[in-house]
């Protein structure tokens, strides 16, 4: 791997990992949107949908390794927001709330179909196809090296893949991701550490040592 390629990937991953889920623009705006959601303001629903729809789709597509499943679960996620809006707590964090719903729907889907816990490295190519808005990471995946990283993440067992996606891709803090996954913060950090080791092992088998940029994203 050349230094130029490594530096290019590091810039893309750094932009993708920038914290952007916890707030929409700032906390005051988020609280205003929550208040409007509680009052069932259609414009508030539209604003939240615009802010999170692409991210939720990408998360679900990468988590399920299926665009069709992601689309179904995404629709159900928004239906849950509509039905529960009036019961939101005034201080709700919209990002963690939405990702919790999406993650739980995916968990229910897997349980209902007794789906194996291991991922599918061959499904990595679907990440960049059909998403509502391509992300910097998806653009970077155009090269063979980035596809190898995508395959390594897609091959992770679900509990490690979701941890890596929530923290490394969607920008949640480990403590926020722990709430989404209903585990303790130390347990989440252990999952992230294990995810990093598994990705490094996959990359080492295909393209030499794991990427420093990826390690920085998921620590």
Word description of this protein:
- This protein has 219 residues and is mainly α.
- It has one domain: PhyR, sigma-like (SL) domain (Butyryl-CoA Dehydrogenase, subunit A, domain 3), CATH 1.20.140.160.
- Helices cover 70% and strands 0% of the residues.
- The protein is built from eleven helices and no strands.
- The chain has helices at residues 3-17, 27-38, 42-64, 67-84, 94-113, 136-140, 144-154, 158-169, 174-181, 185-207, 212-218.
- Helix 8 (158-169) packs antiparallel against helix 9 (174-181).
- The longest helix has 23 residues, at 42-64.
- The chain is globular, with a radius of gyration of 17 Å.
- The protein starts with a helix and ends with a helix.
What descriptors fit this protein?
11 helices, 219 residues, single chain
| CATH domain fold name | Butyryl-CoA Dehydrogenase, subunit A, domain 3
Report the CATH C-level class. Answer: Mainly Alpha
The major sheet is characterized as: none
The fraction of residues assigned to DSSP E strands is: under 5%
Instruction: Count the domains.
Output: 1
CATH architecture descriptor text: Up-down Bundle
Dominant shape:
globular
Regions with little confidence, pLDDT below 50 for 5+ residues: 1-23, 123-131, 215-219
Category from helices, strands and their pairing:
mainly alpha
Would you identify the CATH H-level superfamily?
Answer: PhyR, sigma-like (SL) domain
Average pLDDT value?
78
Q: Percent range for helical residues?
A: over 70%
Put simply, the count of helices is: 11
Please give the radius of gyration in angstroms: 17 Å
By DSSP, the count of extended strands is 0
Following the backbone from N to C, one meets helices and strands in this order, namely HHHHHHHHHHH
Question: What is the CA–CA distance across the termini?
Answer: 22 Å
